[in-house]
Specification:
- The protein has 2 domains: about 1-125 and about 340-420, Multidrug efflux transporter AcrB transmembrane fold (Up-down Bundle), CATH 1.20.1640; about 170-330, no CATH class.
- The chain contains 15 helices and 3 strands.
- The relative contact order is 0.12.
- It starts with a helix and ends in a 10-residue tail after the last helix.
- The protein has a 3-stranded antiparallel sheet.
- It has about 425 residues and is mostly helical.
- The radius of gyration is 33 Å and the shape is elongated.
Length: about 425
């Protein structure tokens, strides 16, 4: 966090989770080293000898897990959201510092501190070790059945991946304990709603908003919007000009239409603006040179997938039914949130692919075995497929946590085989 502060990185609700992730991984590395040391001390080794042996056994797993986890979090830089960059960079720097402390500071401190360990006379497991030994024996005896039992859910979860729907409704970011949440729900239920889409429709010329052709196209677009089932309300300049035309003809409903004369429409607009009090003019609807007007569309509580569909259909309608100058691009916070989740997830998937390739190279180089590398990603892919609806940094944290367990298991397995002669236990009768 100090490095982040000196680098000028500002904390956000996303990047502030970095200390929790860093502490979790740092404690895990320390526990691996200390637990192995204490186990060796119970079997009669001195503290220094057991500490040296623990470092020998855990050095490669701890180093590889720290390196691969740092690579995984650095891949967050492929997203389009700066807070995710900050989270990845802060966590990667913290994991590197945690590795240095675990490999250098922890052994030095452990060698100075007193440890009281009750010696164990024999190698018979006690307490929870009995359960662990029974579990290990069960897994090694029935590995085929366990592989099938685990493989079927994995395939099922992988088949469900295409059903994932990207949804990022910003109103749901808040808990009901925050007053904004119940207020927004009341507004969407009883009023127009909070999800708005804005269209700045250009006429292509100065003063062009009084052109009857422009007004006819704008009125047709407004009518199309109001017919959409997902639209609650539409506010357009054509509503004002048609109401003025009716008012200037004795409020005759038959005159509620677009004026067919450009000068007349311009005079209506001038008269209307002169009659408005200060601060209530149409500057929020019309630009200064009167070449464009703003159309506001209010949507109900709607998923981002439906928002994107509505935006695509709006663009298509404008392209097919209006001149090129009137083909406006929708804007607003609703539009932004409709695409930000998709862009982030696409960036994360690219980062995951690159991280997986780099991590595979690291594992192959360190373990020097394709056979040990081949099955290693399976647990993380299970978590990845099963938690695909929560694509983001929590999923990434679980992914690398699962891989760390795999690496420590493989590392201890290889360390034991190097240290002890090969012994095949006799199969019980």
């Amino acid at each position: 966090m100090g490095v982040a502060g000196h680098a000028g990185i500002k904390l956000s609700p996303i990047s502030v989770t970095a200390p929790t992730i860093i502490l979790t991984l740092a404690i895990a590395d320390s526990i691996h080293i200390l637990v192995t040391m204490l186990k060796l001390m119970r079997h009669g080794m001195s503290k220094r000898e057991s500490l040296r042996e623990s470092i020998r056994i855990n050095a490669i797993p701890v180093s590889i897990t720290s390196l691969t986890t740092a690579i995984g979090f650095l891949s967050l830089n492929f997203t389009d959201t700066p807070p995710f960059w900050h989270l990845g960079n802060i966590t990667a720097a913290g994991i590197t510092a945690a590795w240095l402390f675990s490999m250098f500071l922890l052994p030095a401190v452990a060698s100075l501190l007193p440890f009281r360990v009750k010696p164990q006379a024999d190698d018979q497991p006690r307490g929870i070790e009995k359960l662990i030994d029974a579990y290990a024996l069960f897994v090694t005896r029935h590995y085929k059945g366990i592989g099938i039992a685990v493989g079927i859910p994995v395939i099922g979860l992988a088949m469900l991946a295409p059903t994932v729907e990207l949804n990022d409704e910003w109103v749901k970011y808040f808990d009901h304990r925050i007053q904004f949440c119940p207020d927004s729900e009341f507004g969407m239920e009883h009023l127009t709603g909070l999800y708005r889409v804005e269209f700045s429709v250009e006429s292509g010329e100065e003063g062009g908003i009084s052109n009857p052709g422009y007004l006819e196209h704008l009125d047709a677009f407004t009518g199309w919007l109001r017919e959409r089932p997902e639209v609650n309300h539409v506010f357009s300049y054509t509503d004002i000009i048609k109401r003025l035309n009716k008012n200037m003809h004795g409020d005759d409903p038959t005159w509620y239409a677009i004026p067919q004369d450009r000068e007349l429409a311009a005079q209506y607009l001038l008269l209307y603006e002169l009659s408005l009090p200060f601060g209530l003019d149409l500057n929020d609807r019309i630009n200064v040179d009167k070449s464009a007007t703003r159309v506001t569309v209010t949507l109900p509580e709607i998923s981002t997938a439906k928002v994107r569909s509505f935006l695509d259909e709006s663009r298509d309608w404008l392209r097919d039914n209006t001149p090129e100058a009137m083909q406006a691009e929708p804007t607003s916070a609703t539009v932004m949130f409709a695409f930000i989740a998709q862009r982030n997830i696409e960036g994360m998937l690219v980062g995951n692919a690159i991280a997986l390739g780099l991590i595979s190279c690291v594992l192959v180089g360190s373990l020097r075995s394709w056979k040990l590398r081949a099955p290693e990603p399976d647990p993380q892919h299970v978590a990845h497929r099963g938690d695909l609806r929560d694509l983001g940094h929590p999923q990434r944290h679980g992914w690398h946590g699962g891989r760390d367990c795999d690496l420590h298991l493989i590392g201890h397995h290889r360390g034991r085989h190097r240290a002890l002669p090969c012994q095949v236990p006799a199969r019980p009768a």
